[in-house]
Each structure stands twice: as structure tokens, then as C-alpha cells.
């Protein structure tokens, strides 16, 4: 699949924003001492707001006819993209209510803080889940059509969110919260495990072949001619191919930047390096998302001559 | 009603006539235009609703060239419709035709990702999704003579390799062809239940191979014959 840059930015940024806001709100409402500080909460909330809104705006950039984007709320019953749009919008009043309450009344856990906070945290996770299901529900792309896809999206969103949360907390208060630090380390390990399982899983051959695609299941089939002299929409969208050894190099790079380096930086327990770790993870996840697209092979490729996907 | 096409892979000669007729009709039809980018330039790119690909099946001496025209299969279980967030893509209750409402589409490409058959192409100028309409603006047009109320591709095919009809009617020409010729669906394992059906090539005797022999062998054989006598 052709990796559209706007979609990479959207899924990584909004994923990190949703992860950040969920962990922060839960930490605050369940009484984590380092999060009972309205400057920390407002900074974290502002950052999450910026990441999520920036991501959503970026996602509209890949629409070829954005003037009809408002219609995307209309097929909630069947379409994951529609559900994502609806929940993404529903999330805002809860987030803004929660932040406004902190700004006005401080960090005390009142009924209104709980209502708005738990609502925002739940909707953040639901939206992230819907985003992942857009991909996971496509039977045409074996590498996405798996429960590993939502697990990946949610684990990596929480992971990048936890690093951002630890970074914000230490940057604002000047000292490191060991609880947030431990949570971030745990989630980095979890994210790495989930990603490695995914990479192993997509390596296994399975699914449709050129034989089932053309209906000639008892003989070999070779493409002679695609029938056009230059690439069309299908070639550009689905024909995206990267050399195998470049993919391997990028995988190694991705694991290093997104997981290993941030983990090592976390081990130093230094407040300044936490910010660097969070930034590295976001960059690493951009590579991860790029690979998620580049390694996905749509079944249309079979009609264009691939023997299997 | 369940309208669709039967494509005969035995007789299709791969002339691209159906694709051209389709482009001609539909560029000024209900979903038109079907625009092209750079049509006379170096790297032309445009929206087509029908594409013909050519394959070689099996190995010599049994190999056969098969031309495979593909347009929307008007699937019974069309995920391209359910994934569409705007409601632009829909499947008609009355005849099963899958269409895109050009006034609602936002060009998100998701339906083209959900289609296994490459039947949907984004219009490079309009930014909306285009796909085969089964010539809905021909087949019901009462101003056309009755025998012309057929899709443009079916009308134009010089070898009559495309047949249009109702798959729900067991006595229709398409249903009979599917029965008699063991019609096949493409990629049935994905469960889209495509309506369009493909008739496999008939089995024909293998072409005889002429074995060449060298001059030396010919002379040797001739000499042997003379000596043996
Ligand atoms: S062939 Fe593709 S576009 Fe046509 S109905 Fe089936 S899934 Fe939809
Ligand atoms: S490209 Fe248009 S028709 Fe296709 S899913 Fe998006 S809005 Fe629906
Ligand atoms: S039925 Fe009409 S729209 Fe569909 S491929 Fe044939 S000519 Fe094109």
C-alpha cells in the first residue's frame, strides 16, 4: 500500500495524543500524587489537544474531495471510518469540560471532573480502536486483517502517550515521578513485544494467490500484459513495492528508534533525556506506520502479476 | 433481480473494445466525466471502469493465453459499500447494482481498498470515486430500442464474450451459460460473492509439436535405411 504521509502523521500524532490524555486523566482521577498539579494537567491536556487536532486536520489532507468530509458522520452503523469520525468529535466536549474544570476549580476530584474525565478517557480509547479497525476490517489486505492491528495501535498509542506524560510531568515540575517512569518503561516493553509479534506474524505466507484470483487453480498462471502503457490508480495505490533488504533495514531502524533507544534513555532516569526519548519514539513510530503501509499487500496485486500476497 | 455480466474467457480476444466503449459511454453518463490526466503526454493516467489483463495459463505445450476483462462484479456481499463513511457508495435493493453517488463522495479511497477486484478508481480531476454503473443509464432507458438496452461494453464486444442479464432468473441467458459452462467466480475465498461470472476456456486438443532434426541426423537415417535394404 502506498504510505500517504498525511495518514502516517495522523495516526501517530492522534494515537500519542489519545494515549497521553487517557493515562493522564486516569492517573489524576485515581489519585497519583505527582499528577495532582493543575499546571501539569493543563500542559498535558493542551499537548494532547494539539496532537489530536493536528492529526485529525492532517487526516483530511488525504481526501481528494474534502468538501464532502462532513458527510462522513452518516454511516455510523456500518463504517469504521464513520465511527471514528463520530467518536473523535464526541471526545472534544468531554476533554474541554475536563480541562475547563481543572482550570477553574483546580485538581480536586469532583463529580464533574470524574464525569468529564472518564468520558474523555473512554472516548479517546474508543476512537483509537475505531482508527485501527478501519485497517483491521479489510479482508483484502492480509497484513492488516488481524486482531493484532488494534492491539498494535492501542499499545503503541499508550506507549508514546506514557513517554509524553512522563516528559511533561518532569519538564513542568522539574523532578521525575518514579511511577510514571515505571509505567513508561513497562509500556515501551509491551509495545516492542506487540510489534515484534506482528512482524513475525506477517512473515507467514497465507491467503489468496494468483490462481484463486484468476480462477485457474490447477495450473500455473503468469501475467503477460497489464493492459495499459503507464501506471494507473491501482498501480499507484496498491503497487507500492519496497526492496526486501531496505525493509529489513527500516525494521531494524524502527525497533531501535521507537523502542530500544527510548528504553535506554529511560534507564538513565534523567528528566532532560525523557523529552528526547518521547521525541525519538514519535519519530520511530512514524517509521513504524510507514512500514505498516509499505509492507501491506493488497490482493489487487495478484491481478497485476504477483503470485501471492 | 440480480443484474450482472457473464464473461467468456474462451472467446475473448483481448481487443479492449469493451473498455473503450465503456469509457466513451460513461464519460458523459450519470457519473461522468471520466477524466484523464496528461492524456497525450508521457505518463497518461485516467479513470477507467473496465480493464483487460492478459495471462498465460499452464506451461507449453498446454499453455493458453487468457484475456480477462474486469469491471465491478456488483458483489452480493459488497464491503466497498459498508466501509463507505459518507453513504456515497450504495447497492440498489431492486437490481443489486452497486453505485457511487458523485455528490456525496469525499474521495477517501477506503472503498477502493475494500474492493478485491480493483474495480474502483479515483477520478484524478474530480477527486471522487468512479466505478462501473452496469450502464444503469442505458439498460432502463426506454428511449433506446429494446435490443440496445444493454451495457455499452456488451453491445460493442465483437466476439460476444460479454453477456448481460438477471442471475436471479434461472432461465436467463446468463444463468444458462453459468450452468452449461461451469461458470466461476474470482477469488471466492474472500466471501464477497461477486455476481459477475467467468466462463473458463474450453478444453482443446494440444497443438502438435514439430520436432526439428539436424542435417547430420537426417543423412544418417537415410544412409541407415539404404544399408538395411
Ligand atoms: S467488485 Fe469491488 S466495487 Fe464492485 S461490488 Fe464488488 S467489492 Fe464493490
Ligand atoms: S471514496 Fe467516496 S465512495 Fe469511496 S468510501 Fe470514500 S466517500 Fe465512500
Ligand atoms: S457495464 Fe457499462 S459501466 Fe460497466 S464495464 Fe460495461 S460499459 Fe462500463
SSE map:
The complex is a heterodimer of chains A (309) and B (229).
Chain A (H helix, E strand, L loop, with lengths): L4 H25 L8 H23 L19 H26 L5 H26 L11 H26 L4 H25 L7 H5 L6 E5 L7 H6 L5 H24 L3 H24 L5 H4 L6
Helix pairs in contact in A: 1-2, 1-4, 1-5, 1-10, 2-3, 2-5, 3-4, 4-5, 5-6, 5-10, 6-9, 9-10
Chain B lengths: L2 E6 L8 H10 L9 E2 L7 E2 L4 E7 L6 E7 L8 H4 L6 E3 L6 E3 L9 H5 L6 E2 L6 E2 L5 H4 L12 H5 L5 E5 L6 H8 L16 E3 L15 H14 L1
Parallel strand pairs in B: 1-11
Antiparallel strand pairs in B: 1-10, 2-3, 4-5, 6-7, 8-9
The complex binds iron/sulfur cluster (3 copies).
The site of one iron/sulfur cluster (SF4) has 14 residues of chain B, from loops.
Describe the fold and architecture.
Chain A is an all-alpha fold. Chain A has a single domain (5-304), classed as Formate dehydrogenase/DMSO reductase domain (Formate dehydrogenase/DMSO reductase fold), CATH 1.20.1630.10. Chain A has eleven helices and one strand, in the order H-H-H-H-H-H-H-E-H-H-H-H. Chain A is globular, with a radius of gyration of 21 Å. The model of chain A has no long low-confidence stretch (mean pLDDT 95). Chain B has 229 residues and is an alpha+beta fold. Chain B has one domain (3-203): Alpha-Beta Plaits. Chain B has seven helices and eleven strands. The termini of chain B are far apart. Classes of the chains: A mainly alpha (309), B alpha+beta (229). Strand 1 (221-225) of chain A pairs antiparallel with strand 4 (51-57) of chain B, so a sheet runs across the interface. Bound molecules: iron/sulfur cluster (3 copies). One iron/sulfur cluster is lined by residues 83-84, 86, 88-89, 100, 105-111, 129 of chain B. One iron/sulfur cluster is lined by residues 22, 25-26, 49-50, 71, 132-135, 151-153 of chain B.
Amino acid at each position: 500500500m502506498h504510505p500517504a504521509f498525511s495518514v502516517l502523521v495522523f495516526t501517530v500524532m492522534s494515537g500519542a495524543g489519545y494515549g497521553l490524555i487517557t493515562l493522564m486523566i486516569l492517573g489524576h482521577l485515581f489519585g497519583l500524587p505527582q499528577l495532582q498539579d493543575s499546571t501539569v494537567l493543563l500542559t498535558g491536556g493542551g499537548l494532547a489537544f494539539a496532537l489530536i487536532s493536528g492529526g485529525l486536520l492532517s487526516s483530511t489532507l488525504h481526501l481528494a474531495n474534502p468538501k464532502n468530509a462532513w458527510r462522513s458522520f452518516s454511516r455510523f452503523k456500518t463504517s469504521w471510518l464513520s465511527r471514528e469520525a463520530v467518536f473523535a468529535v464526541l471526545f472534544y466536549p468531554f476533554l474541554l469540560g475536563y480541562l475547563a474544570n481543572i482550570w477553574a476549580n483546580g485538581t480536586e476530584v469532583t463529580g464533574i471532573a470524574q464525569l468529564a474525565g472518564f468520558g474523555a478517557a473512554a472516548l479517546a480509547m474508543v476512537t483509537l480502536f475505531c482508527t485501527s479497525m478501519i485497517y483491521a476490517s479489510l479482508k483484502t489486505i492480509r497484513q492488516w486483517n488481524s486482531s493484532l492491528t488494534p492491539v498494535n495501535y492501542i499499545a503503541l498509542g499508550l506507549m508514546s502517550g506514557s513517554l509524553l506524560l512522563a516528559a511533561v510531568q518532569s519538564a513542568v515540575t522539574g523532578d521525575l515521578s518514579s511511577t510514571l517512569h515505571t509505567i513508561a518503561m513497562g509500556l515501551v516493553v509491551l509495545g516492542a513485544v506487540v510489534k515484534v509479534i506482528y512482524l513475525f506474524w506477517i512473515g507467514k505466507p497465507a491467503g489468496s494467490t494468483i490462481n484463486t484470483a484468476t480462477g485457474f487453480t490447477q495450473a500455473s498462471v503468469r501475467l503477460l500484459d497489464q493492459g495499459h502503457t503507464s501506471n494507473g490508480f491501482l498501480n499507484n495505490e496498491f503497487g507500492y513495492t519496497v526492496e526486501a533488504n531496505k525493509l529489513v533495514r527500516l525494521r531494524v531502524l524502527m525497533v531501535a528508534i521507537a523502542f530500544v533507544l527510548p528504553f535506554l534513555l529511560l534507564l538513565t532516569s534523567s528528566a532532560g533525556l525523557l523529552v528526547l526519548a518521547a521525541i525519538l519514539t514519535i519519530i520511530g513510530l512514524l517509521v513504524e506506520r510507514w512500514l505498516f503501509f509499505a509492507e501491506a499487500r493488497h490482493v489487487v496485486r495478484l491481478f497485476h502479476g504477483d503470485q501471492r500476497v | 433481480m440480480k443484474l450482472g455480466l457473464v464473461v467468456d474467457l474462451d472467446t475473448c480476444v483481448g481487443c479492449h473494445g469493451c473498455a473503450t466503449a465503456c469509457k466513451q459511454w460513461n464519460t458523459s453518463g450519470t457519473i461522468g466525466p471520466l477524466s484523464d490526466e496528461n492524456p497525450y503526454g508521457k505518463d497518461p493516467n485516467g479513470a477507467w471502469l473496465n480493464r483487460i489483463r492478459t495471462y498465460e495459463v499452464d506451461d507449453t505445450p498446454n499453455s493458453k493465453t487468457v484475456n480477462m476483462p474486469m469491471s465491478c462484479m456488483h458483489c452480493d456481499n459488497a464491503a466497498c459499500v459498508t466501509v463507505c463513511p459518507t453513504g456515497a457508495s450504495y447497492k440498489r435493493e431492486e437490481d443489486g447494482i452497486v453505485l457511487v453517488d458523485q455528490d456525496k463522495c469525499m474521495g477517501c479511497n477506503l472503498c477502493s481498498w475494500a474492493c478485491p477486484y480493483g474495480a474502483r478508481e479515483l477520478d484524478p480531476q474530480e477527486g471522487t470515486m468512479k466505478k462501473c454503473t452496469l450502464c444503469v443509464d442505458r439498460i432502463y432507458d426506454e428511449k433506446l430500442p429494446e435490443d440496445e438496452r444493454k451495457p455499452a461494453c456488451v453491445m460493442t464486444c465483437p466476439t460476444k464474450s460479454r453477456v448481460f442479464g438477471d442471475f436471479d432468473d434461472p432461465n436467463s441467458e446468463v444463468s444458462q451459460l453459468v450452468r452449461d459452462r461451469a461458470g466461476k467466480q474470482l477469488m471466492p475465498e474472500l466471501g464477497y460473492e461477486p455476481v459477475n461470472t467467468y466462463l473458463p476456456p474450453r478444453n482443446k486438443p494440444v497443438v502438435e509439436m514439430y520436432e526439428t532434426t539436424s542435417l547430420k541426423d537426417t543423412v544418417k537415417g537415410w544412409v541407415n535405411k539404404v544399408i538395411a535394404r
